[in-house]
Amino acid sequence: MKYLCNPVNINYRYQFNADPRRHGQIQICREAADPSMIFFQGRYYIFASMTLGVWVSDDLATWENHRLPRELPLYDYAPDVRVMGDWVYYCASRREENCDRYRTKDILNGPYEKLEGSFPYWDPNLFVDDDGRVYFYWGCSNITPIWGVELDPVTLEPLGEKKALVEGHPFEIGYERVGEDNSLLPASEAEIDAAYHAFHQRQGISEAQVPEAVRPLIRGMFSRRPYIEGAWMDKHEGRYYLQYACGGTQYNTYADGVYVGDSPMGPFVLADNNPYSYKPGGFLPGAGHGSTMQDAKGSFWHAATMRISKNHDFERRVGLWPAGFDQDGELFCNQRYGDWPMAVEGDPWRNPAWMLLSAGRTMDASSFTEGHEPGKAAEENVQTWWQAASAERTEWLQMDLGREYAVHAVQVNFADDRIDIPCPGKIVGGSQARYIEERDLLTQWKLEGSVDGQTWFVIEDQSDANTDLSHNLIIREDGFQVRYLRLSDMAVPYGQKPCISGLRVFGLGKGEKPKVPVFRAVRTGGLDMEVTIEPQTDTVGYNILFGSSPEKLYHSDMVFAPGKHRVGAMICGRNCFVRVDAFNENGITEGVCVPLEEEEA
């Protein structure tokens, strides 16, 4: 059996970002985002922003990064790729300039034929209908909508005028709101003006010193209106599913919604199942700006952007989840345990085979830096990490599971603390000026296990690896018995001190599953609900499930503590049903599904 564990296990390249809002100060982080995933000639391909290449897989579990030709717009965001006959068509975003297209019959070897562009766009998506007609969707703004237009199938020039298809409605659609947990409504003009002036004062500059092209971006940043972006179109049984991203890529609530219509140019109505892709909780949140495709066996998958956003707003990864259409034609995506190991094959609503064993476990280390203690590596939070006090390979990190378990999977997640080194290449680009690291770097380590803390055996030795996998997954289907795990002999890019955001261990205990959780779910205003979970001692965490009916609890929010939890993804005027499931190292216990209560007047 093949397994994956989000984020996709690939070499995420470092970006040296020269943000004009920071007077050219270089910010360094790994990034990949905005994935376009296709199935072409028996293989899977993911084209993601800022990777200098394409990811290739034969099984959806193991991916390799192949460099693409330099003549492609590799420094432009949101690459879009679609199959049209024997050709694969490629383009990317350039907001103020005409965007060229390229096509090839051989993705890895080329050649790529250039098709001269005639208009600018951002976040493009090409769609080929069953009848051979071609349509194009684009848009990435908190002011303008998602646009659509029919294209000539030969020249790819527009046939007629563009049409507005999807606009933001953050006062009616809760999941479109920006902020952590969809917490912020759009600001008033007075609030925007005040924030803009405060920005100048903090930067020590006047408004006149801000580059003209950057001014609307800064003002838009303070408006708190959602960016409506990242279009992707799918057709299923005669209906058209126009997906879009919203909420802000730097927030845990980055999501994909979906509108449905009977024509590729609309009109479209908001689908009953929304948000379609939404993962605000767990170790690595976020599930916006993605693509949906069918695999070789007919199963659907959704790839989307996941958020770290500590060293830079665009510090991001790519996730992959099972998806599909239900009996009523509703498009769904299963993200209930969306950053746990999952089998590639099976029912799209399959539960994980192995449970999380590492959350909150006792940690020890050879050393640490202030604020980055060993326990941070077991918090199930990608935004916190243990950091060693030195870059020496004698540093180590150790976990005590508390007792012996049968372990089947370990995910080793390396993080980046602030990196301060010279940029190794030339900064290129405009408002998104950067240099993408071209060298193939190395991440090396060794993982050992022990039953008694005295005698150790090697689980995985990557101490001489020639790869740079910062989210490496180790699978042992037969399992092994272990209580202690020790990560050592670490070396990371640029000679930095090693940082671990998650030493995540999965397996099975032999005890009892949790009790049925007791909770109450109340709508608080039109766009929010408050879920209060009663404490119980036998539980590691909870999954808050909600949806349009008891049979369609398609949305989820994983939390690791009882008490009050706010979910900001409600849609005005729509009913909702809620269930809270509890999990521990022994399994999952489903709660009782209840209708969402209305807040008392």
Protein model, in words:
The chain is 4% helix and 42% strand. The protein has 2 helices and 43 strands. The strands form 10 sheets. Strands 26, 27, 28, 29, 31, 32, 33 and 34 form an 8-stranded antiparallel sheet that branches. The N and C termini lie far apart (53 Å). It folds into 3 domains: 31-173 and 229-343, Tachylectin-2, Chain A; 355-508, Galactose-binding domain-like (Jelly Rolls, Sandwich); 519-598, Immunoglobulin-like. α1 packs across α2. The protein is mainly beta and 601 residues long. A hairpin with a 2-residue loop joins β4 and β5.
Give a quick set of tags describing it.
601 residues; mainly beta; Jelly Rolls; Immunoglobulin-like; 3 domains; eight-stranded antiparallel β-sheet; five-stranded antiparallel β-sheet
